[in-house]
Design a protein that fits this description.
Topoisomerase I, Chain A, domain 4; elongated; two-stranded antiparallel ribbon; Gyrase A, domain 2
Length: about 190
């Protein structure tokens, strides 16, 4: 295995770990901390003439104030499918349709609901860590194969240590993201 191949292996492992962290950021943005956030609904799938389509492609989602989301569909016929998608997503809010827009009033969070959201954020963090560890495992397996094919033991150990450091860095990033979200959720 050449140095070029080793560098490529490291880049692929880092890219896979970054994908896990980026996915976590997206998923955490969907968790409402009692504040209206367009990210809560913009990726929901809405039935657009029978085709599942992201909400952001059929309507404009904005915040009216700290506790209200306004969803303005580009076609009035989309009001009912948007309401249905919100009900099915089980966001804990009831959509109000006035014939022009769908309004979502985000209720203040109860202590119990906050704990549920913290638990959900933790679970999302764990799923991301699994993705990071999976990328580490794949990279280490490649290095072990290369070692059998003649890669020096010293170089293999150095690369494994580098992969472990990369893994530790991403795990720390994920922990920080989850802690930040938990703090945000628990702040009244």
């Amino acid at each position: 295995m050449t140095q070029e191949e080793i560098d490529l292996l490291m880049e692929v492992a880092e890219a896979d770990m970054q994908k896990a962290a980026d996915h976590l950021k997206i998923e955490l943005s969907k968790i409402s901390a009692g504040k209206a956030n367009p990210g809560m609904v913009s990726s929901l799938s809405v039935s657009y003439y029978g085709t599942p389509t992201p909400m952001s492609q059929v309507a404009n989602v904005t915040t009216a104030d700290a506790r209200t989301l306004i969803i303005q569909p580009w076609e009035k016929s989309m009001l009912a499918p948007i309401e249905k998608a919100i009900f099915e997503a089980n966001l804990g809010v009831t959509p109000q349709n006035d014939g022009q827009i769908v309004r979502l009033s985000i209720p203040p969070l109860t202590e119990e609901r906050r704990r549920e959201l913290v638990k959900r954020a933790s679970n999302l963090g764990e799923e991301s860590k699994v993705g990071v560890r999976s990328a580490r495992r794949d990279a280490v397996e490649e290095i072990k194969k290369a070692q059998k094919d003649g890669l020096s033991e010293d170089l293999a150990k150095r690369q494994e240590a580098a992969i472990q450091k990369l893994t530790d860095d991403f795990i720390a990033t994920i922990d920080a993201l989850v802690k930040g979200k938990e703090k945000d959720i628990m702040t009244i």
